[in-house]
Amino acid sequence: MSLYRSLRPFLFALPPETAHGLTLKGLRLLGGISLPTKDDAILAQNLLGLDFDNPFGMAAGFDKDGEAISGVHAIGFGFAEIGTLTPMAQPGNPSPRVFRLAAERALINRLGFNNRGQADALARLEDWRAKARNPRPVGVNIGANKDAEDRIADYETGAARFAGLADYLTVNISSPNTPGLRDLQSGAAAGEIMRRVRAAAPDTPVLVKIAPDMSHADAIGLAELARAEAIDGLIISNTTLARDGVATSKHKDQAGGVSGAPVFTMATDMLRAVHQASGGALTLIGVGGVASAAEAYAKIRAGASLVQLYTGLVYEGPGLVKRMKRELADMLRADGFANIKDAVGTDIQ
């Protein structure tokens, strides 16, 4: 039995946010004493003008304020994404606001972009850049304050602030926990956000994170708009409001987005549809329900060049990352691929 399996009952006896805080503290300590180990060369790629030693990234939401970047890299991730960060600090929604659905290997959260604000994270990221040993890519996920009078301007502000420090920027217009935010995924608002973010960060890779609850047609339309506005890629996807996969849970009626295993199929199907429609012209990051190398490989073969996870770690622990890297390398070789990039989108006819 792994150490994490032994510790998990203790962690699961704590409120989810308390356990999460302890995990962040542990990773901060680890980041000060440990460096990432060398990865199998078959997993390495250059994307977005960046070198990724492996395709696995910590999804946004885990390290909102950029406190444990080195620790995230130390447990094996090829990249980290901090945030979502808003221009002004905000507490988010009232607690309790995170719920474990262990039988479904899922979480429901309605955090609401709780963070200490962009200025706080900016200073921390500058300090990390100055001190980091063997740094790996770090993305910054930007959002709008709940009470902002001009939410589009909030995205422009975030892009301008982090353009010089972030390896890439993620525009989060798909969280279900800020009222009205998902309305920005459609029509003129999405195009305006993309134009203003691109103008504010002309030399920084920009991706847009979308919701799995969109129709495939709408997701493809957003991808076409992204290409037209010189956006580099999409992250597919955020949490879902659907309750199909958690219908028997006592928490099913809790407001918020579902993450974890119930999201896997819907997010992967959307990923496949967007990759096929865009002809590989956009860099796609697959996220949603990944807790094994086989699930990561399915997203890669559906069109993802990179894969993010978070909820899978809650149930499997930090050793999951190294295990997935080893097993994914074996799968690639077994299927005759010389490099991971050769496997991207290969399930699409």
TrEMBL record:
GO molecular function: dihydroorotate dehydrogenase (quinone) activity
Binding annotation for substrate: K64, N109, R110, L111, G112, F113, N172, N177, N238, T239
Active site: S175
Protein keywords: Cell membrane, Flavoprotein, FMN, Membrane, Oxidoreductase, Pyrimidine biosynthesis
EC code: 1.3.5.2
Residues involved in FMN binding: A60, G61, F62, D63, K64, T84, N141, N172, K209, S237, G260, G289, Y310, T311
Intracellular or extracellular location(s): Cell membrane; Membrane
Pathway: Pyrimidine metabolism; UMP biosynthesis via de novo pathway; orotate from (S)-dihydroorotate (quinone route): step 1/1
One GO biological process term: 'de novo' UMP biosynthetic process
Subunit composition and interactions: Monomer.
Protein name: Dihydroorotate dehydrogenase (quinone)
Annotated family: Belongs to the dihydroorotate dehydrogenase family. Type 2 subfamily.
Membrane topology: Peripheral membrane protein
InterPro entries given in the database record: Aldolase_TIM, DHO_dehydrogenase, Dihydroorotate_DH_1_2, Dihydroorotate_DH_2, Dihydroorotate_DH_cat, Dihydroorotate_DH_CS
Functional description taken from the UniProt entry: Catalyzes the conversion of dihydroorotate to orotate with quinone as electron acceptor.
Dihydroorotate dehydrogenase catalytic domain segment(s): 43-332
Name of the top EC class for this enzyme: oxidoreductase
Membrane among keywords: yes
Reaction(s) catalysed (UniProt annotation): (S)-dihydroorotate + a quinone = orotate + a quinol
Cofactor mode of binding and number, as noted: Binds 1 FMN per subunit.
Cofactor entry: FMN
An annotated GO cellular component: plasma membrane
